[in-house]
Amino acid sequence: MTGRRRLAGIALVVALAASVVTVARPAATIESGKGRFAFLQTFDDGFSYQLVLTDHDGSDKRVLRRRAVGRPSFSPNRRRITFAGPLTDDSDGRYAIYVVNVDGSRLRRLTRPKFADFDPVWAPGGQRIAFSRDRAGNSRPSSCCVLMTMQADGSNKHRVPHTEGGTRPSWSPDGRRLAYQRPSGLYVVDVDGSSGRRLVPGNHVSEPSWSPDGTKIAFVSKVSPNRSRVNVIPAGGGKIHSRVRRPGLVETPTWGADNRTLFFVYYHGLGDDGRRSSGVWRSPARHLAANRLFSYPRNIYKLTYANQSPPPRDTPVTGDWDDNGTSTAGVVRGVSGNLQWRPSNAKQPTGPKRTYVVGRVRLRDRPVPGDWDGNGTTTAGIVRPLKGDLQWRFTNRFDPDGARRSFRLGRVPLYDVPIVGDWDGDGTDTAGLVRPVKGDLQFRLTNRSRPKGATAAFRVGSVRRYDVPVVGDWDGDGTDTAGLVRPVGGKLRWRVTNRRRPSRLGIRFQLGSVSTQDIPVVGDWNGDGRDSPGIVRPVGGRLRWRLSNRLDGPEVSTVFSYGRG
Question: Is 362 found in the same domain as 276?
């Protein structure tokens, strides 16, 4: 949209895998502020697993990935999760390491092994990830596997010497050592491969987990085919203490922040697969005591726990909030369970012009601002998952009482991503969707304020290349058209078009970086009627905005900080 009729462009990120896709959410997540679990769960009553995220009590369950294997791991800032998943599909047994934001966005594959990589775990400093690599293409740990480390962006992969047969690594809190399992017992080794030693002998011990204070290591000890227990040993070796003894199987112990509480998965009522009924249990400081936190009808598998959620990160939004023809920054912040909108009318803002509430954190509302009535002013909207549909709710004023109008467009099971734009140049923003279809991205647009379906559709972009859809009036003709942002060589490559139904995108330029978690935004930053790119970068707990007024090799012309990062 040009001039005084500006689209509020929000970076709506598609989290796309090599073989499957997930529901996308805004690139910056609004969080509840509590601890949370990540684990795998069966979804077909067989041996296929999905990656699941829940709050500390099992509520607010979210499926992040449809296919995953092994134990996931939170980043130290609790904003990302690394896990192993199929490289192509489940048929050939090849698995790679992936990273995804806790809201399901910005999926990235970090490895492409000849056989399989698995058991990724984040280092305490957040800069490295350790994992196991299958070098022989078989399931015999004594000959197949070795520990590896790499940077968190997938670069600088190194083998940890003297760790043949090693799996299930766990970092020491100082990031200098790794505990891991071999067929002959549990071992501890320096990251450079030196000073390796066996901590616990035997082929019945597995799944070491280092305590946050570095003094203890919890592990699983199998005492019979259908029974195991959680034990604890001093990190330097010594007497082993039993923490969990129950009539069934336990696995994947993980520590709480107090260095005493242990969480674990407990299986009982064994079926043919040995794991018919399971739940997440907690063992407090009392010796051998344990209680159930939650369970689900289908198996829970490979648990990990984030002691607490990070400070909430604002979601960046842009819009012409005062009808002056220029786009300026805004953020949406989770406050007391609500979505608080904080738009600014300054080109380099220091604070919001006003604040108001539209949307709820708990209902997973996604901000989608727009000029809904064509009066030139951007106002709030949200998209809410509701009984499998996407319900759009928006207002035409800065309304403290919430959104007034609503309609449904899009389907949650089809992984639709909401977008907003003036598709016909009439000055009014209307809804659209981007839907993964057979590996492509299908744009589905409507020109009605309360649509029942799409009036235009075209395909541009690729699921497999992790393309992120963006929308803008790139040539100033009053009509919004499509664009994509694609990670290429660690950079963000923009591809945009001025055609309403393009078969491909012609204008190409580069702005932003993958490693710094840059969020693409679009706006008319100088009021010339044409949209141009920008990125929002989390830096030191703040959101750093870097905006450009050009498409032909864009140079950053404006830099400022606004919002929590």
Answer: no
